[in-house]
TrEMBL record:
Protein name from the UniProt record: BolA family transcriptional regulator
Organism: Sphingomonas naasensis
Pfam families: BolA
Gene Ontology biological-process entries: iron-sulfur cluster assembly
Family: Belongs to the BolA/IbaG family.
InterPro entries: BolA, BolA-like_sf
Amino acid sequence: MTDPASGRLADIIAARLTAALAPTQLEVINDSHHHSGHLGDDGTGESHWTVVIESEAFTGVSRVQRQRLINTALADLLAGRIHALAIRARAPGE
């Protein structure tokens, strides 16, 4: 797993979600440029994110539980490096 103190945050997010959820599709989008100068912008250019993810782990799982699974995989990053995270999570075939 990538050390959270090094590397591009998008790569770290992707590695964490891949390890935790084995996604069949994954897109990590940096939305920080839309929030430059706003509350939560820490100046790094890596504060606001969207994750689009498809995983078998989401089959039969509620939307809230899907978000909890993602939040658990990214917990330490959400506590410090990620200000905002939009999630679009689906199971295959949805």
